[in-house]
Amino acid sequence: MASKRANKPKSSVESRSGGRVLADALVAQGIDHVFAVPGESYLDVLDGLYAVRNSLHLVTCRFEAGAVNMAEAYGKLHGRPAAAFVTRGPGACHASIGVHIAQQDSTPLLLFVGQIPFNETDRESFQEVDYRKMFAPLAKWVTQIDDASRIPELVAHAVDVATSGRPGPVVIALSEEMQKHIVTVPDIAPAYVSRPHPDPAAMEEMAKLLKKASKPLAIVGGGWSDAGRAAIGKFLRAHNIPTAVSFRRQSFYDGQAENFVGDIGVGSDPALIAKAKESDLILALGTRLGEAVSQGYTLFDFAGATPIVHVYPEASEIGRVFRPALGIASDLNAFAAAAAKVKPGKCDWADWTQELRALRLKGCEVPNYDGPLNVAQVMRDLEEVLEPDALLTCDAGNFATWPQRFLNLQNDQRYFGPTNGAMGYGVPAAIGLKIAHPERQVVAFVGDGGFLMTGQELATAFHHAVDPIVIVFNNSMYGTIRMYQERSFPGRVSGTSLTNPDFAKFIESFGGHGEVVNSTEEFLPAFRRAAKSGKPSVIELRQNPEQITSRATIAQLRAAGAANPGAPKHPVAVAAPAVARKEGKKRKGR
Fold first, then answer.
1. 204 exposed, middle or buried (CB, 10 Å; 0-12, 13-18, 19+)?
2. pLDDT tens for residues 208-227?
3. CA proximity to 85, closest of 97, 107, 102, 68
4. What DSSP designation does 258 have?
5. CA atoms 313, 319, 322, 326: torsion sign
6. Which alpha helices (H) appear in 114-269, and where do they start and end?
């Protein structure tokens, strides 16, 4: 088999086609999943992938954006890249959104694009695109392979680039005739590279800054291995530091820990944002402190009035916007291991931590929303029945504020969403994760708008015999845009209303399991039936469209917009009273 050839030393090297060399190079670099929409521009690679089919899982997808999103979700979970393959021209254009997600989410990813024969370059040949120019702003590195003998070298370097420093996407174009060339070249094994560790003097300085603080706040971003996540959690709990996650980074901190205080990003609790402004020390751990986390670059002073300890694997990102009191350029997991050894000093902020934790608990209380379906209660009920190691994916849109606010993830559960706000991510990401981990429960959250962008990828789930559960939040509108529209142009609805199919019947047409939920009480039985069905499932939540976010109604937005024309684009808070959580429930495995 190809895997034996790739991993065993050879006394002599066999001649192979470029397509086969590329397939063997992927195996040699430890790539075990390829997500692809086939194209005639890389037929020889497809043949090479057939030869290594016992070592590498080829997932045939229905749309290039879906294929790259599947690969991106895989990279988020594992911290190492999967590969996506698309054809030239239109295929590459469709795939570009996934590259942008990987760039802004700092996710390792390999995208291979079939290319025209290189002797046709600059003739505007059929589907010709200069991928170095096209992907230059989106990828860490873009290259083209015209010489088959360089395939092992360039694939190995692509993996190194994608996984080093701040991880990200690499795009490799493959000349069509190069794949046919017969070459004699050895495979290249992965290189062991020692990751950069934090300077011990910097760790001592961080301890000194902590000693001076009375209101510290940690903001945890992405990029941690399981061991790193455990180590950074140990450090933050030992020092009793109130800890928030940055935008859509719920995977990286235990949502039920006593020092977990919520998320700082889009749709965050205004009370937590106010407290963040009171903090006298920010530990920015693995977050770039970008636009969403910094609330449009308004949360902190640019010159460093609030001391910031900024820990990030890419030195150029430290101080890019906010000048830190201390910058630590380090592999995040190496930093976490070092931080876990820092002995707690004086921690005179117990009341501060309890105050912020109380805000989180209060924010999770279920308001008395109008209508028969209370989505907040649905999320709290779902929390009780999710598998302890469930994988959750989330699309972009206003609906995302419901799981973000009301779900408290267990330590072994994981949550993935696009920090660049790309719609169409949730469904393919869930399918990709379920294919990679069929033994784990996978649930996708998606709005009605996002579902009809990539919902057809459910065909991929059927093709590969996996059974994700997709929860569709249906309010018959592009909710985020409608929210901003109502604030800026109250009552002037333009272009944001949607007409939808019956989503349950949609999945049933594939042979899957469909449910429609109109009331709160209907949800748990519907979810249990979906989980037991063994089929790809869609649960459609028919929401009250008036309740446009978890904190605001359309009427409230219109009133605020009329009273404050040109006001910032932040939804007003819901004034409805909250009800206590149901007592006596025990967490279940199912």
1. exposed
2. 999 999 999 999 998 899 99
3. 68
4. T
5. positive
6. 131-135, 151-163, 200-212, 226-238
Residue 401 has pLDDT above 80, yes or no: yes
d(CA 427, CA 447): 10
Cβ-defined contacts of 327-331 (< 8 Å, 24+):
328/198, 328/199, 328/202, 328/203, 328/206, 329/196, 330/196, 330/197, 330/198, 331/195, 331/196, 331/197
**Which carries the bigger pLDDT value, residue 127 or residue 154?**
154
Q: Which amino acid is at 129?
A: V
Q: Which of 154, 184, 214 corresponds to the end of one domain?
A: 184
Q: Is residue 195 part of a domain?
A: no
- What are the distances in angstroms from CA 50 to CA 1, 54, 167, 262? 11, 9, 29, 46
Q: What are 570-585's pLDDT values in tens digits?
A: 444 434 434 443 433 4
Alpha-carbon distances, residue 38 vs 35, 53, 354, 491, 583 (angstroms): 10, 16, 54, 46, 53
Domain final position from 360, 390, 408: 360
The verdict on residue 558 lying in a domain is yes
Do residues 150 and 59 share a domain?
Answer: yes
The model's pLDDT over 170-195, given as tens digits with 9 standing for 90+, comes to 999 999 899 999 999 999 999 888 88
Q: Residue 405: its pLDDT value, please?
A: 92
Radius of gyration of the chain (CA): 25
How would DSSP label each residue in 69-128?
HHHHHHHHHHSS--EEEE-STHHHHHHHHHHHHHHHHT--EEEEEEE--GGGTTS--TT-
Secondary structure (3-state) at 408: coil
Query: How confident is the model at residue 585, as a pLDDT?
Result: 41
E strand map for 389-531: 391-394, 414-416, 442-447, 469-474, 513-517
pLDDT at 413 over 80: yes
Q: Is 286 left (phi over 0), alpha (psi -120 to 50) or beta?
A: left
pLDDT digits (tens, 9 = 90+) for 319-368: 899 999 999 999 999 999 999 999 887 788 999 999 999 999 999 999 99
For residues 28 and 433, what is the distance between their CA atoms, to the nearest angstrom? 22
The single-letter DSSP state of residue 572 is P
Would 29 be classed as within a structural domain? yes
Which residues span the domain enclosing 73? 2-184
Domains of the chain: total:
3
| 6/106 same-domain check | yes
The model's pTM: 0.90
Q: Which two tokens stand for residue 259?
A: 């020092």
- For residue 460, give the 3-state DSSP assignment: helix
What CA–CA distance (Å, rounded) separates 206 from 394? 34
Determine the Cα–Cα distance for residues 578 and 561; give it in Å rounded to an integer: 25
| Residue 192 C-alpha from the chain's centroid | 27
Q: What tens digit of pLDDT does each residue of 4-16 get?
A: 344 444 435 899 9
